[in-house]
Amino acid sequence: MSAFLQRAFANWDCIYICQMKDFWPRMQAVLTFQNPDEYTITIGEWLLEARPGPQLPAGESSVRAALRQDPDCLLVAQAEGDQGPLLLQAALTGHRVVAGFALTPRQVLQKLLEEQEGLGFTQARSLFFEPDGLWIYSPEKDIFERVSAFEEGTFRDLILPAEPPPPPPPPAPEPLQAPAEWGPASPLLPELEAIFTPLARPCYAPLFNDGPRAGQFGGRPRLAPSEEWPRCGACQERLHLVCELDLAQLPESRPFPASGWLQLFYCTSDHCDHPQAWGPFSHNALARRLPEGEPALLAPPNSAHPQRNITGWQALLDYPGWEERPPLNDRQRTASYNLEEPAFLEHFGLTQPANRERAAAYFRNYPGDKLLGWPAWTQSADYPRCPQCARPMSMFFQINNDGQDSQEPGYTSCHGQIFAADGNGHIFVCAIHPDQLTFSWACG
């Protein structure tokens, strides 16, 4: 097929109007270049060897019925004069219309303009197939121009279609500007490495795949022999098991022995009004190590947080949040929020993705559920002190309270909200006296 027709079929919202003479041979040449996946509806008798679509008898009602099926291409071999406006409207609403009229193209055009006031016939890019070839109508000049000859069942170009003008070149990027507080341009990564490498701590995010249980959130706890279910010291209701970790299957259990279970209970009763429910060593929470025990027989008191089994742990590298970082100068501090800024990356030699990721990792303090690592504080850093030695206690396990359970490890909240608004809770233990445990939380 001619280049003109190929472009027309690829880019135009078209109506193709022919005289009925030699309609089907002409359309066979045209349809060779139609998309084979297009859904073709034929009105009238089908005479081509191509795959037909539904065939409907001629008439305006049949055209309307065909259009309700939203065809890509509508073929009307013997269109009647009163169907012209309907076919034109179909072309203007995104259908390719190929219609054969007994009238000449000029008569068809005149009739459409007379009968379809206000629709703007020139909105549709129109091709007219005459016995001697292909013509287009120029509304600006009000003339028909022959652009292709029909010879031996195909079309030969007489006029090549005009190429669209090339798009204008993009504007030149503005030169990158570095604020004065960034100081001289120099590699920043060595400075960050010197500051943050000694602060790196391994942490472990819980996983919830198939496999043996290494712990759980919610569900029935293990209890010591003959022990009753722990109760809240404020309202006397049974405490909810927040989590239970098998110390023998943790990637790191110190300062605890690698046996028994670490448990956290918390009161979720609506009637509990403990004045300091958030604080350490409060009577509405119980954090403990259980050396031995068996699963409780009673059902959990709070069914809103069903059991979810931990089946493994993913190792991550954690760094302190802003509350516990050492003092940073302006250029070091701005790295925490400028690692998507091209001027910053160029100024400090961080344009390589690997260097950018290393710099970003130094400011990564995982806010989700995790074992060990650095606490992600919702408010300010607040380590409780051991009642026996008055030393600051260490965070052993962090429980995220945001309720986001579909994110990647290190960002997940496995239990949902149980304490208050969004925030984090922490199980603390004394490194010298591991029998001293407590829990506290804070919300944003």
Protein model, in words:
There is one protein chain. By secondary structure, this protein is α+β, with helices and mostly antiparallel strands. It folds into 2 domains: 155 residues, Rossmann fold, CATH 3.40.50.300; 257 residues, YwqG-like (Hypothetical protein YwqG fold, Roll). The protein is built from 9 helices and 22 strands. It has a 9-stranded mixed sheet with strand order 3-2-4-5-1-6-7-8-9, sandwiched between helices. Strands 18-10-19-20-21-22 form a 6-stranded antiparallel sheet, with no helix packed on it. Strands 15-14-13-11-17 form a 5-stranded antiparallel sheet, with no helix packed on it. A hairpin with a 2-residue loop joins strand 8 and strand 9. The radius of gyration is 38 Å and the shape is elongated.
Essential attributes:
444 residues; alpha+beta; Rossmann fold; Hypothetical protein YwqG fold; nine-stranded mixed beta sheet; six-stranded antiparallel beta sheet; 9 helices; 22 strands; 26% strand
How is this fold's topology laid out?
Layout: H1 3-11, E1 14-19, H2 23-31, E2 40-43, E3 55-56, H3 60-67, E4 73-76, H4 84-92, E5 96-101, H5 105-115, E6 125-130, E7 133-138, E8 143-151, E9 154-157, H6 189-196, E10 201-207, E11 215-217, E12 222-223, E13 240-246, E14 261-266, E15 285-290, E16 294-295, E17 308-310, E18 312-318, H7 330-334, H8 342-347, H9 353-361, E19 370-372, E20 394-400, E21 423-429, E22 437-443
Parallel strand pairs: 1-5, 1-6, 2-3, 2-4, 4-5
Antiparallel strand pairs: 6-7, 7-8, 8-9, 10-18, 10-19, 11-13, 11-17, 12-16, 13-14, 14-15, 19-20, 20-21, 21-22
